[in-house]
Design a protein that fits this description.
The protein is an alpha/beta fold and 237 residues long. The chain has two domains: 131 residues, D-Maltodextrin-Binding Protein, domain 2 (3-Layer(aba) Sandwich), CATH 3.40.190; 96 residues, D-Maltodextrin-Binding Protein, domain 2 (3-Layer(aba) Sandwich). Strand 2, helix 1 and strand 3 form a beta-alpha-beta unit. Helix 1 packs antiparallel against helix 8 and helix 5 crosses helix 6. This is Polar amino acid transport system substrate-binding protein. InterPro entries: Solute-binding_3/MltF_N.
Length: 237
């Protein structure tokens, strides 16, 4: 899905091609959300037009490397692979997020102790989550966020590991039984451009300094900062 968002333009070349992974409520399938609002504000300050393309994170990384997009998100800030940082650099802007484990059984939340279990996560996230948790990559199953949550609810994976609010948003729509959760780590979410795009980097960083990110993300912070473990019940609002 591609949506064009207009902002003041100075030349035909001032289009910022963006590849975004669904990450509700920061980035939705409809190309809205707090991070999209922030990108619009940055584009206005930079005098650019956004061209937004919603795609899996794995595809976004390939598209950035292939010069098919100029900016991708969200990245796990500072936690990507060495290979990634050979062709990409992250912007200074980041959003504090919580990486959580979700399961129908409390026993599966202790990931290292739960042997012979399968972990679901959205496309492109296995590498950094495996390194962060110490789990073997062959224990992971990837899919869209919707698919991995549905696999959890159907007991096709034992645990889902991803950002707290994104998974909770989906579970509150779909779950018909209690789902347990536990915080794994705080992981900042960022945006990346090609390492060779020094002029774009300077242009965006100047625009970032002029945008009040705290005001944009304040509602998300209220959703994010809840107890480090607990249970999501079907009747939760």
């Amino acid at each position: 899905m591609i949506l064009a968002v207009s902002a003041p333009v100075r030349s035909a070349t001032d289009t910022l091609r963006v590849g975004l992974e669904p990450f509700p409520p920061l980035i939705t399938e409809e190309a809205s959300g707090y991070s999209v609002e922030w990108l619009r504000a940055v584009a206005r300050e930079a005098g650019m037009t956004l061209r937004l393309n919603i795609m899996p994170y794995s595809r976004a990384k390939i598209s950035l490397m292939a010069d098919q997009v100029d900016l991708i998100g969200h990245t796990p800030y500072g936690l990507e692979s060495d290979r990634f940082y050979q062709f990409a650099q992250e912007l200074s802007h980041r959003v504090t997020t919580r990486l959580e484990a979700f399961s129908l059984s409390r026993d599966h939340l202790a990931l290292k102790e739960a042997t012979n279990t399968f972990v679901g996560t959205p496309f492109g996230n296995t590498g950094f989550i495996a390194e962060l948790t110490g789990l073997d990559q062959d224990r992971f199953v990837e899919g869209t966020l919707e698919n991995v949550v549905n696999m959890l609810l159907a007991s096709r994976v034992d645990t889902v590991v991803f950002e707290r609010v994104s998974v909770m948003t989906r579970l509150r729509k779909e779950a018909e039984q209690p789902v347990y959760y536990r915080r794994i780590e705080q992981v900042d979410a960022g945006f990346a451009i090609r390492a060779s795009d020094t002029a774009l980097h300077q242009r965006l960083e100047s625009a970032i300094d002029a945008v009040n990110a705290d005001a944009i993300y304040r509602p998300y912070a209220d959703l994010r900062d809840v107890p480090s473990e607990g249970v999501i019940r079907p009747d939760a609002e």
